[in-house]
Amino acid sequence: MDKNNITCIQKAKFIFEFYEKREWQPGEEPPLSGVVKAARVEPGAVRHLGNFLANRLERIARMMEILIDAHDRWGVSGKKDRVIMETDSYDFNDALKLLKENGFNDDEFVLKVEYERKWGLL
What we know:
The chain is an alpha+beta fold.
């Protein structure tokens, strides 16, 4: 978005889900399904979920650090299964570029962008 745009405000929201990726690769199985949807829960499935969560939460924390280091005006909130970061003062394209430069993929977060019109200006 053009930084000098005076007709609308860009609101970017990054959603980092704990248990799910946006897309699972062929052959990958969501680790939560081995515990929640299983007829019988095996100890290995619980360990697999624990390992997945430890890795996933570390990656989420790293993405948060990168974004906060780049821009200090984020609203950060937590839900039972996700962390949400929102801002209306940082271009989402810059944030995406930073995350990609640091080895993160599009399937590790959900990005929602909204544009709000500033009324009274044409």
